Amino acid sequence: MAKITLSIIKADIGSIGGHIKPSQRLLEVVENYVKEKGRGLIIDYYIGYTGDDIAILTTHKKGAANPKIHKLCWDAFLAGTKLAKAQGLYGAGQDLLVEAFSGNVKGMGPQVAEIEIEERPAEPFLFFQADKTEPGAFNLPLYLAFADPMYCAGLILAPTIKKGFKWVIMDVAYTKIDKIIELNSPEESYDVAALLRDNGRFVVESIFSRATGEQVVAASTTRLHNIAGKYVGKDDPVMLVRAQKDFPATGEILAPHTIGPFVSGFMRGSHT
User: Fold this and answer.
1) What is the 3-state secondary structure (H, E, C) of the chain?
2) Residue 145 and residue 187 share a domain
3) Residue in 10, 106, 132, 234 annotated catalytic
4) Is 179 one of the catalytic residues?
5) Could you confirm whether 190 is annotated as catalytic?
6) Do residues 183 and 199 both lie within one domain?
7) 261 and 128 in one domain?
8) Catalytic pick from 46, 174, 190, 231?
9) Of 65, 111, 190, 205, which sees the most CB atoms within 10 A?
10) Which domain holds residue 210?
11) 12 is catalytic
């Protein structure tokens, strides 16, 4: 059986009232494009938004970083940008930082998170999207959900979860190549914490179950100013987190978000 891939691609391509939300017509154009052009390519899709960012979530059997899937979403954003300009929306096409499509959208402006999985009989997952902040905004909630038994009871009670997780952490300040650090919890939990407290530099890129080897988390790590060479807005990350059984339960993943920690962001990237 072919593996299923979950892909999120998100971009700011225009907003009413300045950084508030896409127009209803803009959402419809993006959705209609994915619906029409995605026939025979994708299994299913969901179009959502947070703030002024439109996110395209697709399920398919093409694998991560597939050029056809990425081009579908890129072209949907281009179609939306054309309408956004016609409507006079604020920041039309703002996150489309590169003109020519080059195989996949990573490094072109949109945020990307993808997981290729062997689908379970029931495959619950959570889709997180944030506006006006940076990828490190997910660091603390992820640490608490996957390394702190006060939030994740499975770390004490579930044999597979108790074996811990492999953390893949990216140094997003290093721009020459992807600079990756791999650490294991619980043995290296303090080292994981030491990195993740610097959430402007070290960002969780993915997390894997040590019991099964399966990927549990995929998060975007794109820093827009690294692409554009100047400030062009906050990075507005996205994240996929699988839940239940060998992974933390939905409630264990969501509980840390009730803290509402302070993160970098707000209008103009101005505040914490």
Assistant:
1) CCCEEEEEEEEECCEECCCCECCHHHHHHHHHHHHHHCCCCCCEEEEEEECCEEEEEEEECCCCCCHHHHHHHHHHHHHHHHHHHHHCCECCCCCCCCCCCCCCCCCCCCEEEEEEECCCCCCCEEEEECCCECHHHHHHHHHHHHHCCCCCCHHHHCHHHHCCEEEEEEECCCCCCCCEEEEEECCCHHHHHHHHCCCCCEEEEEEEECCCCCEEEEECCCCHHHHHCCCCCCCCCEEEEECCCCCCCHHHHHHHHHHCCCCCECHHHCEC
2) yes
3) 234
4) no
5) no
6) yes
7) yes
8) 231
9) 111
10) 122-269
11) yes
